[in-house]
Amino acid sequence: MTSFPADLILLAALVVTTASVALLNRRLKAVDRLNADYGKALAEASSALICARDALDTFGHDGREVLVLLAGRIDTAHALLAEIDARQSRAPLAPELHDR
Asked: Quick one: DSSP state of residue 94?
């Protein structure tokens, strides 16, 4: 008869422990789902960063091409201006321009 109260105490402790373990299991499953979502978000962020890096590389390459083309056109424009200046200095002025 003396073991009956002890058995009730042990049974209550077992029920409380089982409930605690069940609650902990639910929380761990929720953390696992959140961890999976976090992993997906990190994978998407990584993919977006890779795309951004590739875009910057392309932008840099295209920018260098434009810079080279622009430098070539500026050099051509300088040469044309020098040629125009040389022609103007060799050409005689028209008589109506002398009066001014």
From this structure: P
